[in-house]
Amino acid sequence: MAETDRTGTDATETETTGTDATGTDRTGTDATGTDLASLEAERRRIRDTHLRPPAEREPSTARGLHHTALISGDVERTVRFYQDLLGFPLTELIENRDYPGSSHFFFDIGNHNLLAFFDFPGLDVGPYAEVLGGLHHLAISVEPRRWEEIVRRLDGAGVEYAIHSDVSVYFRDPDGARIELIADPLGEMYGNKVL
């Protein structure tokens, strides 16, 4: 499906450059010269080696995601964004036991899962950066009706976003972390069962 940005502009292949929205040319090589066919072959090999049919999978040793902790540059700004704009209730605000003066606070993202934050006053932690081992994006499932409502709220608040496949909206939080709200149910991805 076509990808659209906040203005509804189609972000699919452009005839003028011969590349698609990801910078891939028609020969299957991306802007960095990476051979995409080789990468797909490697994905297929890994999938064939490690992905077991549901009936053959061992049960997970985990009970679920207790919380994911991100870094906040401003506690109140983060609360306003996640609680007031996105609708994730603040459930606790305590001192971070690992760093005196730092706050550790939590938002309810449904099904007993929490999104948590730390702030580090007095430390220059620098701007958000995507690095190996770091956060690429955090995807949170929301009901389709709520998804549409939140997209309207993002518009009203002037938050830039991009919609993909008609069910995913991507945007950045006040500190730059990429957030995806997906209208697919838990355990599904674009109509495919992943769990």
From TrEMBL:
It holds the Pfam family Glyoxalase. InterPro entries: Glyas_Bleomycin-R_OHBP_Dase, Glyas_Fos-R_dOase_dom, GlyoxalaseI/FosfomycinResist, VOC_core. Residues 1-65 are annotated as: Disordered. PROSITE patterns: VOC. Coiled coil: none annotated. Residues 40-60 have a biased composition (Basic and acidic residues). It comes from the Bacteria. This is Glyoxalase. Residues 64-184 form the VOC domain. It comes from Planobispora rosea. Residues 9-35 have a biased composition (Low complexity).
